[in-house]
Design brief:
This protein has 315 residues and is an alpha/beta fold. It folds into two domains: 230 residues, Malonyl-Coenzyme A Acyl Carrier Protein, domain 2 (3-Layer(aba) Sandwich); 70 residues, Malonyl-CoA ACP transacylase, ACP-binding (Alpha-Beta Plaits, 2-Layer Sandwich), CATH 3.30.70. The chain is built from 14 helices and ten strands. It is globular, with a radius of gyration of 19 Å.
Length: 315
């Protein structure tokens, strides 16, 4: 077996009930949720376990909730003695990866992403910005359309380069509408408007950067125990001095997920383990490269299945 990468999901994977079964079964994991509640000053665990889904989906709740649920799964999984060679996370998931790599403390990470969610929601007035997923179009072709629309005065850009044939665009409502229409005309299979509260990973998020910087200045950032692939440039980061700048850039820059996965594979990774709610990243990784081994774990059953498969491969 080659190298192992742990990957952590981003916003959109949240679901009511996530992490509850592990908290019920393991005292230290229950305490993890209690620590998150205490740090935030409200019961995040109640929102996570009781809902409603609409409240959990608010960016300022979804981000700390996903980080907490993913770290809960990681806490249980690492008892099995499996260690990664690399880590990565999609947008919000990058903070989870940095927490898993001991660059951020759990409490400070929960606080930082809660504030990050608030700043992202406040950066652009409701209804002025949006996002859409463009399916079945090459990156260069879509970039050409985006450049054309942007040159004519509308703010729009590539936001998430997820896998071949799946790219998310972000910007003003008008900019996204114009790119969507042109993309359909020029061969995109589908364009799906996303139900989001703002134009994330676009230049419109720039106003939130100064606020996020204040928060990141308040917390301690350490060197990573394990290299973490950064969203902004698909390069491994390990030094504390590099992490803050990359997190600030990430707020308004495209998430280079496909590039990150390809860089991990080039570095020798052949096993990806998605840690946390859902299977979104597992699906993207399979579309990027069908030769690699991909597992998704989120509860006791899926953890045990993954352990059995890893032991079998290691024979």
């Amino acid at each position: 077996m080659g190298k192992i990468a742990f990957v952590f999901p981003g916003q959109g994977s949240q679901i009511v009930g996530m992490g509850r079964s592990l908290a019920d079964e393991h005292q230290d994991i229950r305490e993890l949720f209690e620590r998150a509640d205490q740090k935030l000053g409200f019961s995040l665990s109640d929102i996570m376990w009781k809902g409603p889904q609409e409240e959990l989906t608010f960016t300022m709740n979804a981000q700390p909730a996903l980080l907490t649920a993913s770290i809960a799964v990681l806490t249980r999984f690492t008892r099995e003695g499996i260690t990664p060679d690399y880590m990565a996370g999609h947008s919000l998931g990058e903070y989870t990866a940095l927490t898993a790599a001991n660059a951020l403390s759990f409490e400070e990470a929960v606080y930082a992403v809660h504030k990050r969610g608030q700043f992202m929601e406040q950066a652009v007035p409701a209804g002025e910005g949006t996002m859409a997923a463009v399916l079945g179009m090459e990156r260069d072709a879509l970039q050409h359309i985006v450049d054309h629309v942007a040159a004519n005065g509308d703010i729009v850009g590539l936001a998430n380069l997820n896998c071949p044939g799946q790219i998310v665009i972000s910007g003003t409502a008008a900019g996204v509408d114009k790119v969507s229409a042109l993309a359909k005309e020029q061969g995109a299979k589908r364009v799906i408007p996303l139900n989001v509260s703002g134009p994330f990973h676009s230049i419109l998020m720039k106003p939130a950067t100064a606020q996020l910087e204040e928060v990141l200045n308040e917390i301690t950032i350490s060197d990573c125990d394990v290299p973490v692939m950064a969203n902004v440039d698909a390069k491994a980061v390990q030094k504390a001095s590099d992490i803050q700048q990359k997190l600030l850039q990430q707020l308004y820059s495209p998430v280079l997920w496909q590039d990150s996965v390809e860089a991990l594979i080039a570095a020798g990774v052949d096993t990806f383990i998605e840690i946390g709610p859902g299977k979104v990243l597992s699906g993207l990784i399979k579309k990027i490269n069908r030769q690699v081994r991909v597992m998704a774990i989120q509860d006791e059953e899926t953890i045990r299945k993954a352990i059995a498969e890893l032991k079998e491969v290691a024979k």
